């Protein structure tokens, strides 16, 4: 595949991402979108009975953005770097949306009994 085709595909993907962000710019509520995660955490906390800490987890907003843009793991993260240089405001908006999604998810995990 030529570099021109790759650049065109990345530009089309960026445009599609912009349309999706415009349509779905609201971060999901973890109690609605991930209702099983806090519930599972609470269920696991009981058998552990304080013997072993239950660790909460979420990908960082940047890591999530990388996988959202690339669509899979990458050796060089070319498309997210291209977005950073060619569409910085779009990447910034994606990071803001991811941040608004990650913070409530981590808070929900804490409320459900995650220790660390």
List descriptors.
mainly alpha, 116 residues, elongated
Counting copies of identical and different chains, the oligomeric state is: single chain
Overall SS class: mainly alpha
- Computed over alpha carbons, the radius of gyration is 18 Å
Number of helical stretches of at least 4 residues: 6
Termini Cα gap: 46 Å
Overall shape: it is elongated
Overall average residue pLDDT: 75
Residue fraction in strands? under 5%
Helix content bin: 55-70%
Largest β sheet strand count, sense and barrel closure: none
Q: How many separate domains make up the residues?
A: 1
Report on the architecture of this protein.
With about 120 residues, this protein is mostly helical. It has one domain (about 5-20, about 50-110). About 70% of the residues lie in helices and about 0% in strands. The protein contains six helices and no strands. The protein has helices spanning about 5-25, 30-35, 35-50, 60-70, 80-85, 90-110. α1 (about 5-25) crosses α6. The chain is elongated and about 55 Å long.
Could you outline the blueprint of secondary structure elements for this entry?
Blueprint: H1 3-23, H2 30-33, H3 36-48, H4 61-70, H5 78-86, H6 88-111
In short:
With 116 residues, the chain is mainly alpha-helical. The protein has helices at residues 3-23, 30-33, 36-48, 61-70, 78-86, 88-111.
